[in-house]
Write a structure and sequence with these properties.
This is Short-chain dehydrogenase. By secondary structure, the chain is of the alpha/beta class. It has one domain (25-208, 235-262): Rossmann fold (3-Layer(aba) Sandwich). Helices cover 44% and strands 15% of the residues. The chain contains eight helices and seven strands; from the N terminus they run βαβαβαβαβαβαααβ. It has helices at residues 34-45, 57-69, 84-98, 122-148, 171-191, 209-217, 221-228, 237-248, and strands at residues 25-29, 49-54, 73-78, 103-106, 153-158, 196-203, 259-262. Helix 2 (57-69) links the parallel strand 2 (49-54) and strand 3 (73-78).
């Protein structure tokens, strides 16, 4: 798929009981793997018309095909959160596909090279700013503009437990995720009169490929994470996706400006 390709399908409604997100148009960024992939599959099962966005468009096409095979509605658009033009293009694609946006799960992220503060490079800091802060900021602004046309919507941003406390192993990542919490709260207050709810999630250790990559760079980190969680294990991506699904649904209609931990008690 090129940067201008958009995979489309006619809208269909999944069989089975009505779900939490029935007939909602929901964008999922970072949807090619991990929490984003789990969310896209769950939201579609809950009745949403999902638009999957990520840089790895080949992986998106596989997920889209699976969702369609199960009777859901899914489309894929390319998105590079470090590129403001790519963000604008992805939101424009959602508009062309569906003419509206009801929900957005901003889950895309970049991880830094693990290491102490005084060994973190300018390149790592720049990447964290571009993707984990500025990318989310620009995405939220574009999403909110499309949501206003149909009377509102809901946005959920994926932050991290590392935003809630000192993060000596991932200092730039933690700093930008803490900044993301701040703009999430600010957006919630700013856009509440327009019917747009904005919340965040702070997952703890989650069994994704990112953890695999961290384990490869820092052997033993997986065991350390498991030992730090009162439930005794990392969350599965589907468990984080369930929290996002609830926040995007009418079940959370009075919830905005919340930063919700999904961490097995690790942040308590």
């Amino acid at each position: 798929m090129t940067n201008t390709d958009i995979s489309t399908t006619a809208s269909t409604t999944p069989t089975g009981p009505a779900g939490l997100l029935l007939d909602r148009v929901v964008l999922v960024t970072g949807a090619s793997r991990g929490i984003g992939e789990a969310a896209a599959r769950l939201f579609a099962a809950e009745g949403a018309r999902v638009v999957l966005a990520a840089r790895q468009t080949d992986a998106l096409d596989v997920i889209v095909a699976d969702i369609r095979r199960d009777g859901g509605t899914a489309d894929a658009v390319p998105l590079d959160l470090a590129d403001p033009a790519s963000i604008a293009g992805a939101i424009a694609a959602v508009d062309r596909l569906h003419g509206r946006l009801d929900g957005a799960f901003n889950n895309g992220a970049a991880i830094q090279t693990p290491g102490p503060l005084d060994e973190t490079t300018d390149e790592d800091v720049d990447l964290q700013f571009a993707v984990n802060f500025r990318g989310h900021w620009r995405a939220m602004v574009a999403e909110a503009a499309l949501m206003r046309r149909s009377g509102g919507g809901a946005i959920v941003n994926t932050s991290s437990i590392g935003s809630r406390r000192a993060n000596p192993a991932l200092p730039a990542y933690g700093a930008m995720k803490r900044a993301l919490n701040s703009i999430t709260e600010t957006a919630a207050v700013t856009w509440a009169p327009q019917g747009i709810r904005v919340n965040g999630l702070t997952p703890g250790g989650t069994a994704t490929r990112m953890i695999d990559e961290w384990e490869a760079a820092s052997p033993g980190i997986r065991a350390q994470i498991d030992a730090s969680i009162p439930l005794g294990r990392m969350a599965e991506p589907e468990e984080v996706a369930q929290a996002a699904c609830w926040l995007l649904s009418d079940r959370a209609s009075a919830v905005t400006g919340a930063i919700v931990p999904v961490d097995g008690g690790a942040g308590a």
